[in-house]
Specification:
The chain is α+β, with helices and mostly antiparallel strands. 45% of the residues lie in helices and 20% in strands. It is built from 15 helices and 20 strands. Strands 3-19-20-18-17-15 form a six-stranded mixed beta sheet. A five-stranded antiparallel beta sheet has the order 5-4-8-7-6. α2 runs antiparallel to α3, α8 runs parallel beside α9 and α11 packs parallel to α12. It is rod-shaped.
């Protein structure tokens, strides 16, 4: 009977093998079961064992050494630095405020003294300005005929004597100049020099202001107006003079003062601070017309403190660099405009070294001590804490090695403190674990050998019973020649099965399988065919004896018994790099999905495969389960067996073993 051919595709992680089978067609959607022993779900013999105890570390995790150092920075260094900075800043602000308040009190006292100085000068000029003798001079000058232009010698002498006996009796006044409305003038003074010409006076920017004050005095500081003098300490008082009786304008009076009293005023508040404190008298544009140290007169304070000093603000104090030295700057407005002093201010400049004084020294000392303490804390962290951390890290590294199975790992024992005791304890523990594992390994080896012998003992009666049953049938049928051949082949089988070696060459295993198949051909005559394909270069590699025969026996006993077509068994050996794959394929009745599901992904190493079968299936699956368990015991979790089957279409079993050659084969 002819059957259509079909292909069974076995996919193993990207490798496709097509095994031709002469039988009824099979669909591509075939369900597979496997019982490779592994701690994870497996999908092929290429699956590698991944122990649950593998040490996993995140790539972004921070080691203990860094954590300790960052903790030292965050909880010791940075808080101390922030605290020190805050204390230093607050102390600076507190010193600035306290000394600023003290300086403001001083400047108030200076302002009062300056007020009294100008008040006295105004009082003296007011007193003589209304006297008949002074006003008579203006009338006399007015009576001079235009053609004469000058006063007579008599008048000049008279006026000079009169001024010296009145206005010039006030010591700060250095000279006096009288101008009538027509520009005629007369002047007198303590020293030489001529009076300011009438033309220069009228063209001065101060002249309009003098007229607006309408008799009140206007004080002009040194260099404040370019038309007036620039001598140190020379102040000018300019005013409009009115007739005492009619209040008509008689003319103008210009008085030049030299206030030596200013030096005394500022000196009284600067007794022991000549090198640390400076006082400046300035106008509203920042012009310095008095400096107690004399070297800044004529300069502009706004240029010396660019962007720092605002004359529009109220009295205030602030820190700034003045002439490359950190200083405390205090501004105080005189507010004596009623005296004719227009928007003048006093600026106090005090060296910060003097302001902070001993406090600054103490702060620096405390800062130095703090940094020294931090340095020793850092040394302590690097020397002692780091040593402990390094011990922990070394122990962690050693534990990882032990976790990976390196029981030769030992920690260095140094010193006589608790760290060395900890290292000795770790080493002692590893030695103890190594001894225990060796003992467990020896016991496991004995257990595996005993289990392997038991499995082999299970296989021998199993196929011996089937073979003897076949010989018995032939003997009943009086087929002596076939009985002889079967006995001969049975002898070959028993010879290999009774060898003391657990592993034989693949060539011997295939010969053993061929003898078995030839015996079975007598029993299932004209009911099945077989095909063995094996590359010659793989025949010298070793395999557990009696590996293929139970699988073929399972196909014959359970796959072909109820079929009504020619059975086909294909045995194929495939080179898969570091492994060898053996495929046993039949076109029998297959395995139902329900039974196949019981084989799917066995996960417990300690559970024999046949225990997952029910009582009714245990006998039928005994040979297959023994092969699976033997491979598991002999080669480990990386190797095993797959079953792919579909009910009514056939079964493929794949065995994966390592590629190695045994000694003496």
């Amino acid at each position: 009977m002819l059957r259509s051919s079909w292909n069974l595709r076995f996919i193993d992680e990207g490798v496709e093998d097509f095994i031709p089978i002469a039988s009824k067609p099979i669909p591509r959607s075939i369900k597979c079961g496997s019982f490779i022993i592994n701690s994870k779900q497996c999908k092929g013999a290429n699956t590698r064992m991944v122990p649950d105890s593998v040490w996993k570390e995140s790539a972004s995790s921070m080691n203990l050494n860094k954590k300790v150092f960052i903790g030292f920075l965050m909880f010791i260094i940075i808080p101390l630095f922030v605290l020190g900075s805050a204390v230093y800043t607050v102390s600076q602000q507190l010193i600035e405020k306290k000394y600023g308040d003290l300086t403001e009190v001083t400047l108030q006292a200076i302002s009062r003294n300056i007020y009294y100085m100008f008040k006295e000068a105004n009082y003296f000029s007011d007193f003589w300005m209304v006297k008949e003798s002074i006003q008579g001079i203006y009338r006399t000058i007015d009576e001079v005929k235009p053609s004469e232009n000058t006063l007579s010698s008599y008048d000049l002498n008279t006026f000079d004597t009169l001024l010296r006996g009145s206005i010039l009796t006030y010591s700060p006044i250095q000279s006096v100049a009288i101008y009538n409305n027509a520009g005629k003038s007369f002047s007198a003074g303590r020293g030489g020099g001529s009076a300011l010409p009438w033309t220069a006076l009228t063209q001065s920017t101060a002249f309009q202001h003098i007229q607006e004050l309408n008799g009140s005095p206007l004080w002009i500081g040194p260099s404040e107006y370019k038309e007036f003098g620039t001598g140190r300490g020379e102040f000018y008082q300019a005013r409009l003079v009115k007739d005492f009786w009619t209040m008509d304008n008689l003319g103008f009076m210009l008085l030049k003062f030299k206030f030596n009293e200013l030096d005394q005023i500022f000196k009284s508040f600067n007794t022991n601070e000549e090198s640390s404190k400076r006082y400046l008298l300035i106008n509203k544009s920042g012009l310095i017309f008095y400096d107690n140290k004399q070297n800044l007169e004529g300069a502009n304070v706004l240029q010396l403190l660019p962007g720092k000093l605002d004359l529009q603000l109220n009295n205030n104090s602030f820190q700034a660099n003045f002439q490359n030295e950190k200083s405390l700057i205090s501004l105080y407005h005189l507010n004596i405009n009623q005296m004719g002093v227009q928007d003048w201010s006093v600026v106090s400049i005090t060296s910060w070294k003097y302001v902070a004084g001993e406090i600054e020294t103490i702060m620096k000392l405390v800062a130095g001590i703090t940094f020294v303490c931090l340095f020793f804390a850092l040394v302590y962290n690097l020397v002692f804490v780091r040593r402990i951390v390094q011990l922990i890290l070394r122990m962690l590294s050693s534990m990882k090695k032990v976790e990976r199975g390196d029981l030769t790992t030992r920690m260095e024992e140094s010193g006589k403190d608790e760290t060395s005791a900890l290292a000795r304890g770790f080493n002692s523990l590893v030695v103890r674990v190594e001894d225990l594992l060796e003992e467990v390994k020896r016991q496991q080896d004995r257990k595996n050998k005993a289990e392997l012998m038991l499995l082999q003992a299970q296989i021998k009666p199993h196929f011996l019973f089937n073979t003897l049953e076949s010989i018995n049938v032939l003997a009943i049928q009086n087929q002596g020649k076939k009985v002889s051949q079967m006995v001969y082949r049975l002898g070959n089988l028993l010879r290999i099965g009774m060898e003391n070696r657990e592993e034989i060459s693949l060539k011997q295993e295939l010969e053993h399988l061929k003898s078995y198949l030839e015996i079975q051909e007598f029993r299932f005559e004209d009911q099945f065919q077989y095909d063995i394909q094996a590359p010659p270069e793989l025949l010298d590699y070793c395999i557990l004896k009696l590996t293929l025969q139970p699988l073929v026996e399972n196909s014959l006993q359970h796959g072909f018994e109820p079929i009504d077509y020619m059975g086909m068994i294909s045995i194929k050996v495939v080179d898969e790099g570091e492994r060898i794959a053996l495929y046993v394929t039949d076109n029998g009745i297959g395995i139902s999905a329900e039974k196949l599901a019981k084989f799917h992904y066995k996960t417990e190493l300690e559970t024999p495969f046949h225990e997952i079968l029910g009582a009714n299936e245990e006998r039928r699956g005994l040979g297959v389960s023994n092969v699976a368990d033997r491979i598991r015991i002999q080669y480990g979790a990386h190797y095993g067996m797959f079953i792919c089957s579909q009910e009514g279409h056939g079964t493929t079993m794949k065995i994966v073993i390592p590629k190695n050659k045994g000694e003496g084969l």
